[in-house]
Amino acid sequence: MTKNVRVRFAPSPTGPLHIGGVRTALFNYLFAKKYQGTFILRIEDTDQNRYVEGAEQYIIDALNWCGIPFDEGPGKNEKFGPYRQSERKHLYKKYADELIASGNAYYAFDTAETLDFHRKDHEEKGKTFIYNWHNRLKLSNSLSLSAEEVKAKLDAGEDYVIRFKSPKNETLHLKDIIRGDIKIDTNVLDDKVLFKSDGMPTYHLANIVDDHLMEITHVIRGEEWLPSLALHYQLYKAFGWEAPEFAHLPLILKPTGKGKLSKRDGDKMGFPVFPLQWTDSTTNEVSRGYKEDGYFPEAMVNFLAFLGWNPGTEQEIFNLEELIKAFELERVNKSGARFDPDKIKWFNHHYMQEQDNQILAEAFKKERPELIDIDTEYMALVVGLIKERATFVNDFWELSHYFFVAPSTYDEKASKKAFKEDTADILNKIKDLILHIDDFTVTALQNDIKGWITNNDIGFGKVMMPLRLALVGSLQGPDVFEIMFLIGKNETINRLTAALNAL
Fold first, then answer.
1. What CA–CA distance (Å, rounded) separates 257 from 486?
2. What would the pLDDT profile of 16-66 be if each residue is shown by its tens digit?
3. pTM over 0.70
4. Cis status, amide bond into 13, omega within 30 of 0
5. Contact (CB, 8 A) for 74 and 114
6. Known catalytic residue at 260
7. Does the domain formed by 363-502 have CATH 1.10.10.350?
8. Which of 153, 186, 304, 454 is most deeply buried (CB count within 10 A of its CB)?
9. Catalytic, out of 89, 93, 263, 343
10. What Enzyme Commission number(s) appear in the record (predicted)?
């Protein structure tokens, strides 16, 4: 890559950032970092009616939590600022006027009622109404009106829009890094609105002008923008600007594989579709987030990278640096990627094993306030023993409660299996053996107890099952000798005594 790569993630602050938006941001970030380029955040808030308070900060927090922070953006390294489109609106009228002057755009004064009439009229005739070469001379615009009539309408302050004048009988040859060559017949394109009389541009004009002024080299965005590609190419041509390279990412599909993933799917099937928790300020409805549900950002990033991209190898576990090194837009699929809630859990389980036990112990304490006074070093040792069975920190208590509280009941099925006629006698002898172990370590416990079992020619199950049941209350948990070592000699003796009295 010879040119200085500059890419942008340009969400609208209309609510929480969907998982699909995070994937788009991630692919932009990976591409930028692979070529030592710049990752830009631009807030596309031209539609002020849909603006939601707090959404912009949510987007920033989500990117930071995922470990993919922007290089340039609102309040950060503002070389090409401002980065909110609402703060750039003074720029766009000039470019809209340029397009009118060059004959590539025109004023349209049609009322909403007139356009609605034409749409219904076409529907009744089994047709689709498209505002373009086919009918624009029959409508109220600067192509059908005289210059004097146009001036009079503008001077009178009549509402208007500025539309792009899409050409007739041309074939556009477009390129997309992921989808290859694309041909478009201009006869089927409508004359999109670029600018409104309220002084605000539409997405189409604002995004082209901003991408040009911010020197964006590659536009990596979702498949839903593919229908706009023809217009955007034509706008670059009309301005006489060099167009960036385009890459349209595949949709993220429902777990069933049919249709685009939505919040409703997450609600229905019990998984989040947002990176962070979001509270709707109008309804107070709380939407779950991956962070609050106990997922690690590394797991989420690794999972999202595989939604539509494939490294071409069997490797599935990639840290961020490895993703940057391996990522290629040419290896992104055209077809939609099915969202698999179980797969992200698989990734989370993997990254759980890589987490520092001390950090996990602190998180465990926050989960269970009753453990606040327990020594963190002790909790870290417990976590080290049980985390291989855990997917989330909130799994820890069920897997480890017996390290902190002696069992008050014993699993009935396990008791019948573990306690036989001679079990009490065996456990009493084990208890006496433990009492006389001076060096109370895992190794000493293993050597002495296993040695006693071997010397007395007793089956290991006859000793280890009731021993585990006495310590845990069930037949679950890590190595019995590790449990005894961590709870200590006195607690081990107390639990054996309690089990013998109860069972």
1. 48
2. 999 999 999 999 999 999 999 999 999 998 777 888 899 999 999 999 999
3. yes
4. no
5. no
6. no
7. yes
8. 304
9. 263
10. 6.1.1.17
